[in-house]
Amino acid sequence: MKNLNICIIGGGNLGRAIAEGFLKAGLPAGKLVITRRRPHLLEDLTKKGVRVESDNAAAVIGADLVILAVKPYQAEGVLQGIRSSLIPGQMLASLMTGVSLESLKSWLPETVIPFRVMPNTAIALQESMTCISAPDCNDEQKEVIQELFETLGKVIYINEELMAAATVLGACGIAFALRFIRAATQGGIEIGFGAEVAQEIVAQTVKGATELILQTGHHPEREIDKVTTPKGITISGLNAMEHQGFSSALIQGLLVSYNKINNG
Ligand SMILES: NC(=O)C1=CN([C@@H]2O[C@H](COP(=O)(O)OP(=O)(O)OC[C@H]3O[C@@H](n4cnc5c(N)ncnc54)[C@H](OP(=O)(O)O)[C@@H]3O)[C@@H](O)[C@H]2O)C=CC1
Ligand SMILES: O=C(O)[C@@H]1CCC=N1
């Protein structure tokens, strides 16, 4: 991965998070170029030795991999701007929600291989869940891509039809999980803790719950059964949450996000 030259177009929330993740993973800063129209907002990256540009066409020259992280509605215009600077064999990863491979191919030269990547903002800490769809890449390219994104968290390959579902579950999922953390913290304050301590307790508890599932592969309910003492306080709290629609609210939220991707 240290040999790849990487160009990130669109240094916003996600583009910047990826740049930070690559630097943490040990990619030499000189191998990274990142663009946005207001490059001064990436001054901290410049200070770390990353080349920051506002000229996309200049930035893609020499890149082995171009990562496109602008808003979906900007995709066509941005690709038209770099089209004539791209050369055969370059790979292009699109992070953009709801932009199909078919659309990307129609905007790109035939010799440039597009694939879709759906990470989340935990990529800045090398803790992303990244779903990738790369049907046009050969096995060697897929291996390179997998190795690269595995330096930034977990990677799975999926069919493109599942990209919308991956976006909701993995990318939006960060916000959904954080809202749980915020709500639990607010509850913690009401029962006696200061905000900082409440947040620390909730965050470490969520991390512990996550590790119980990741390290054992158990169904969540199996681990829940170990906490719910008969006639105890946990089951009373859980049941009260379910009476208020806890699981149902989460599932409905996922569906609203999912339907919005599909219906625009
Ligand atoms: N945020 C997230 O958690 C996730 C986002 N995504 C997808 O990633 C993409 C980016 O999302 P996000 O980072 O949140 O959005 P942001 O708005 O934070 O970032 C987009 C960036 O693109 C820059 N930009 C706009 N036009 C150009 C241009 N012509 N050339 C170069 N840069 C440009 C903007 O900066 P400036 O105005 O200075 O040019 C802006 O900072 C979206 O398509 C989104 O669907 C996918 C998964 C997760
Ligand atoms: O909210 C959004 O549209 C983007 C896609 C996934 C996360 N953020």
UniProtKB/TrEMBL annotation:
<dbReference type="InterPro" id="IPR028939">
    <property type="entry name" value="P5C_Rdtase_cat_N"/>
</dbReference>
<keyword id="KW-0028">Amino-acid biosynthesis</keyword>
<keyword id="KW-0560">Oxidoreductase</keyword>
<protein>
    <recommendedName>
        <fullName>Pyrroline-5-carboxylate reductase</fullName>
        <ecNumber>1.5.1.2</ecNumber>
    </recommendedName>
</protein>
<feature type="binding site">
    <location>
        <begin position="69"/>
        <end position="72"/>
    </location>
    <ligand>
        <name>NADP(+)</name>
    </ligand>
</feature>
<feature type="binding site">
    <location>
        <begin position="9"/>
        <end position="14"/>
    </location>
    <ligand>
        <name>NADP(+)</name>
    </ligand>
</feature>
<dbReference type="InterPro" id="IPR008927">
    <property type="entry name" value="6-PGluconate_DH-like_C_sf"/>
</dbReference>
<comment type="function">
    <text>Catalyzes the reduction of 1-pyrroline-5-carboxylate (PCA) to L-proline.</text>
</comment>
<keyword id="KW-0521">NADP</keyword>
<dbReference type="GO" id="GO:0004735">
    <property type="term" value="F:pyrroline-5-carboxylate reductase activity"/>
</dbReference>
<feature type="domain" description="Pyrroline-5-carboxylate reductase catalytic N-terminal">
    <location>
        <begin position="6"/>
        <end position="97"/>
    </location>
</feature>
<keyword id="KW-0963">Cytoplasm</keyword>
<keyword id="KW-0641">Proline biosynthesis</keyword>
<dbReference type="Pfam" id="PF03807">
    <property type="entry name" value="F420_oxidored"/>
</dbReference>
<comment type="pathway">
    <text>Amino-acid biosynthesis; L-proline biosynthesis; L-proline from L-glutamate 5-semialdehyde: step 1/1.</text>
</comment>
<feature type="binding site">
    <location>
        <position position="56"/>
    </location>
    <ligand>
        <name>NADPH</name>
    </ligand>
</feature>
<dbReference type="Pfam" id="PF14748">
    <property type="entry name" value="P5CR_dimer"/>
</dbReference>
<comment type="similarity">
    <text>Belongs to the pyrroline-5-carboxylate reductase family.</text>
</comment>
<dbReference type="InterPro" id="IPR000304">
    <property type="entry name" value="Pyrroline-COOH_reductase"/>
</dbReference>
<feature type="domain" description="Pyrroline-5-carboxylate reductase dimerisation">
    <location>
        <begin position="160"/>
        <end position="260"/>
    </location>
</feature>
<dbReference type="GO" id="GO:0055129">
    <property type="term" value="P:L-proline biosynthetic process"/>
</dbReference>
<dbReference type="InterPro" id="IPR036291">
    <property type="entry name" value="NAD(P)-bd_dom_sf"/>
</dbReference>
<dbReference type="GO" id="GO:0005737">
    <property type="term" value="C:cytoplasm"/>
</dbReference>
<dbReference type="InterPro" id="IPR029036">
    <property type="entry name" value="P5CR_dimer"/>
</dbReference>
